[in-house]
């Protein structure tokens, strides 16, 4: 059963139970995860389509800047034994788009890239891209820890905070990031409450008072009725 | 090019301005009574059941901005509502350095496409505040008059909740509520220690089907995107679209009403509007005009409807149109629960909002401010969206390693990834939503020098919070800290102090604007009577939250729906007895 058929059944109100919802095959659920290219879909007004298209076709960062961003995002979110790194999750493209969508960050971001280059020139007489990985990390170490960084590194710290925020946000809102974080929702399902083993883990239990009040999933297919006082009787 | 939607009639029985909660309910009740109805909506048509309009069940990477907000979608790219506080074509102004932020939704269903579906009845005390604390005014009606309509709204639209028997939080005809999420159970446990009640929330989301036309909730937590099976309430899907099946309703979209037209005797004869697509002015004739354009927009239309009989605008012989504008108070705080770090993963979406809430629980006679507030809760393993993990430079220190050592703020690399995973689903937030005291000096009026893109004079706002609201916000902050600490949370951020009015948001930010056309028995101090009929124009009615005398610490939608139904019944009765 595909998702649309599934929803049609839900819409009919006759089969809205957990059984139907879990009957989808895993392949079909995965099929929905393919990345979409283009502006945001769904109920757009013409001004939005126009704006998204214009932002997507424009270009803010130069090729050289993009190369530098690619190195930087993989420093923030590298490949590890759980998931690939940020560049594989296309975080540089996300940053490029966001800089156009929220132009207030453009100068701080571009200036930050340039600040890093200037620091690299001062210390190693080469740009950030040209210096060695260990030389890069020497620089990054001085700006990556806001509570420990030297005051004169303030500019770099601020840039790296911006870079970290954008990279983390871009990574964890990608398909790769979803698998990394283990988000399990955004799919038709039935909420049955906190799993028993999880409640046990934290020593929690449902309030006795509400046990009979909470939704029972087997009732999700039937239209209810109330008495004159408003008590649910069917 | 002429875009005009051709009216099917020379004259309608009723013209309804706006298709939100108030306009939608009036459309349904009046058309079902056999009356011919024209609905005039300033935005476009929209139906979440259509694939081309669907934002529900989309993943963040389907949006190039990953669901970040835009100017016309301040609650994010996937939020259904189009408009926001800052619309380029529809400005408004402010007076004397004061602030009011005006949120509009220009689309079928209006702001019901966005709201949190929190559906609370006003209680007996909420209609009689002056009698209790001497401030503001009593409503000319009480809970008993409106209760039958709350009951009917419950059964027509559906709301889940638990019967609690609390005097001023009246129970309804509830569907079963969903069980709490894990962080909500932590909050319930913490609240119990300090005697703050937490009960199942009351949301208009169908945990069971209510009729054959609407589906049942499948727990995706995205009501604000609009539900493709209509399992939550929005005026478009539950009221206007069903009403249109009768053939009694003509819907005019993209049509911005500028004024109510009237005859020499001062009676309403219809409306004049600008079609936003061809920028031409058109007129519709009707025997009765019902304004449901939102408290401020309806006030604007009335103030702009000047004539010989109504020199200050229709309904405004008292000079009260626009006065007593008020919004709910709002303040919030968040924390992080270390015990929830490294959580087991499972689908925790649930319904589109909190499964629990705190109704007002204290006696203002023992406090230094008037009126109460309720508390809404957030948290859990939400779908990552724009902004996810964007504060590691400030919150990473709360994450402890296996030896109990805190991580340093900021950083990068594999350690950063590990800590983000550890932290996922461990933050909780809470927001207070409180009652303010309506003030004559808080108002909207017509700006004499500014028009919108359609040539219509715009509103100018004047609004200041009083000590009551500021002290209430202080009380919220104290309560939030106590609740968070007792739930095992570490506090995030710093406690908002007096310099920020204790984090009290600017008026208009909670989007509960009410009071601009308040009801009353005295035509000198109120705009409409207890049937929401203008004192000085018997065929002009207001069906939005404008007639509210006071906005309780409850969300206004359920009361708008009940009042609009009651007003519609009155219109039918008056038509039948030839009084209209």
From TrEMBL, chain A:
<dbReference type="InterPro" id="IPR027056">
    <property type="entry name" value="Gluconate_2DH_su3"/>
</dbReference>
<protein>
    <submittedName>
        <fullName>Gluconate 2-dehydrogenase subunit 3</fullName>
    </submittedName>
</protein>
<dbReference type="Pfam" id="PF13618">
    <property type="entry name" value="Gluconate_2-dh3"/>
</dbReference>
UniProtKB/TrEMBL annotation, chain B:
<dbReference type="GO" id="GO:0050660">
    <property type="term" value="F:flavin adenine dinucleotide binding"/>
</dbReference>
<protein>
    <submittedName>
        <fullName>Choline dehydrogenase</fullName>
    </submittedName>
</protein>
<keyword id="KW-0274">FAD</keyword>
<dbReference type="InterPro" id="IPR051473">
    <property type="entry name" value="P2Ox-like"/>
</dbReference>
<keyword id="KW-0560">Oxidoreductase</keyword>
<dbReference type="Pfam" id="PF05199">
    <property type="entry name" value="GMC_oxred_C"/>
</dbReference>
<comment type="similarity">
    <text>Belongs to the GMC oxidoreductase family.</text>
</comment>
<dbReference type="InterPro" id="IPR007867">
    <property type="entry name" value="GMC_OxRtase_C"/>
</dbReference>
<dbReference type="InterPro" id="IPR000172">
    <property type="entry name" value="GMC_OxRdtase_N"/>
</dbReference>
<feature type="domain" description="Glucose-methanol-choline oxidoreductase C-terminal">
    <location>
        <begin position="444"/>
        <end position="563"/>
    </location>
</feature>
<dbReference type="InterPro" id="IPR036188">
    <property type="entry name" value="FAD/NAD-bd_sf"/>
</dbReference>
<dbReference type="GO" id="GO:0016614">
    <property type="term" value="F:oxidoreductase activity, acting on CH-OH group of donors"/>
</dbReference>
<keyword id="KW-0285">Flavoprotein</keyword>
<feature type="domain" description="Glucose-methanol-choline oxidoreductase N-terminal">
    <location>
        <begin position="97"/>
        <end position="327"/>
    </location>
</feature>
<dbReference type="Pfam" id="PF00732">
    <property type="entry name" value="GMC_oxred_N"/>
</dbReference>
């Amino acid at each position: 059963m595909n998702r649309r058929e599934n929803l049609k059944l839900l819409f009919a109100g006759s089969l809205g139970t957990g059984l139907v919802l879990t009957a989808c095959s895993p392949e079909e659920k995965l099929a929905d995860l393919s990345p979409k290219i283009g502006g945001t879909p769904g109920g757009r007004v013409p001004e939005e389509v126009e704006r998204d298209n214009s932002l997507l076709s424009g270009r803010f960062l130069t090729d050289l800047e993009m190369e530098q961003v690619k190195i930087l995002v993989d420093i923030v979110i590298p490949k590890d034994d759980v998931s690939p790194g940020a560049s594989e999750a296309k975080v540089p493209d996300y940053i490029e788009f966001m800089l156009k969508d929220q132009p207030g960050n453009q100068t701080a971001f571009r200036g930050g890239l340039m600040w890093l280059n200037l620091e690299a020139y001062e210390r190693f007489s080469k740009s950030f891209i040209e210096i060695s990985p260990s030389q890069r990390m020497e620089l990054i170490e001085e700006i990556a820890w806001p509570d420990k960084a030297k005051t004169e590194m303030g500019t770099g710290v601020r840039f790296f905070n911006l870079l970290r925020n954008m990279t983390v946000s871009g990574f964890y809102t990608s398909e790769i990031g979803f698998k990394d974080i283990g988000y399990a929702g955004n799919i038709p399902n039935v909420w049955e409450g906190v799993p028993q083993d999880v409640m046990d883990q934290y020593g929690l239990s449902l309030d006795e008072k509400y046990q009979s009040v909470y939704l029972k999933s087997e009732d999700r297919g039937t239209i209810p009725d109330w008495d004159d006082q408003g008590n649910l009787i069917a | 090019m002429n875009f005009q939607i051709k009216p099917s009639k020379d004259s309608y029985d009723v013209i309804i301005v706006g298709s939100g909660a108030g306009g939608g309910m009036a459309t349904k009740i009046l058309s079902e009574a056999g009356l011919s109805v024209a609905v005039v909506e300033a935005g476009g048509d929209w139906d979440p059941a259509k694939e081309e309009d669907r934002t529900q069940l989309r993943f963040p990477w389907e949006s190039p901005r990953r669901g970040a907000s835009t100017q016309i979608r301040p609650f994010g790219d996937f939020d259904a509502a189009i408009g926001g506080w800052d619309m380029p074509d529809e400005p408004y102004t402010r007076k004397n350095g004061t602030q009011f932020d005006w949120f509009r939704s220009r689309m079928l269903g209006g702001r019901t496409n966005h709201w949190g579906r929190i559906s609370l009845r006003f209680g007996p005390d909420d209609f009689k505040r002056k009698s209790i604390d001497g401030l503001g005014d009593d409503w000319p009606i009480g809970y008993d008059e409106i209760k039958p309509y709350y009951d009917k709204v419950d059964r027509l639209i559906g709301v889940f909740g638990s019967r609690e028997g609390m005097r001023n939080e009246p129970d309804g005809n509830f569907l079963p509520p969903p069980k709490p999420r894990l962080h909500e159970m932590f909050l319930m446990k913490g609240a119990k220690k300090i005697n703050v009640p937490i009960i199942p929330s009351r949301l208009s989301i169908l945990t069971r089907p209510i009729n054959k036309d609407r589906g049942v909730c499948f727990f995706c937590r995205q009501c604000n995107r609009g539900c493709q099976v209509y399992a939550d309430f929005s005026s478009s899907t539950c009221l206007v679209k069903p009403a249109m099946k009768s053939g009694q309703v003509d819907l005019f979209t993209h049509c911005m009403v500028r004024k109510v037209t009237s005859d020499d005797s001062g009676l309403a004869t219809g409306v004049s509007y600008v079609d936003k697509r061809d920028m031409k002015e058109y007129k519709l004739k009707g025997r009765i005009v019902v304004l449901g354009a939102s408290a401020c927009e309806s006030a604007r239309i009335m103030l702009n409807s000047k004539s010989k009989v109504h020199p200050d605008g229709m309904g405004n012989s008292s000079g009260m149109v626009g006065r007593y504008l008020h919004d709910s108070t709002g303040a919030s705080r968040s924390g992080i629960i270390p015990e929830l770090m490294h959580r087991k993963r499972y689908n925790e979406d649930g319904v589109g909002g909190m499964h629990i809430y705190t109704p007002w629980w204290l006696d203002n006679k023992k406090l230094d401010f008037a009126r109460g507030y309720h508390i809404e809760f957030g948290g859990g393993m939400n779908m990552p969206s724009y902004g996810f993990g964007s504060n590691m430079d400030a919150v990473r220190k709360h994450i402890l390693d296996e030896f109990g050592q805190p991580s340093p703020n900021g950083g990068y690399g594999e350690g950063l990834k590990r800590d983000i995973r550890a932290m996922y689903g461990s933050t909780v937030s809470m927001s207070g939503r409180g009652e303010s005291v309506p003030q004559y000096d808080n108002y909207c009026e017509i700006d004499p020098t500014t028009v919108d893109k359609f040539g219509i004079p715009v509103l100018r706002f004047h609004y200041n919070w009083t000590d009551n609201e500021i002290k209430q916000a202080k009380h919220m902050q104290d309560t939030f800290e106590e609740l968070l600490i007792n739930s095992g949370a570490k506090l995030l951020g710093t406690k908002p102090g007096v310099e920020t009015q204790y984090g009290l948001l600017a008026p208009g930010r909670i989007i509960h604007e009410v009071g601009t056309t308040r009801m009353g028995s005295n035509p000198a101090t109120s705009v409409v009577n207890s049937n929401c009929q203008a004192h000085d124009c018997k065929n002009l009615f207001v069906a939005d939250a404008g007639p509210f005398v006071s906005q309780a610490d409850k969300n206004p939608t359920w009361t708008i729906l009940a009042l609009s139904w009651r007003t519609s019944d009155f219109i039918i009765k008056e038509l039948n007895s030839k009084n209209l």
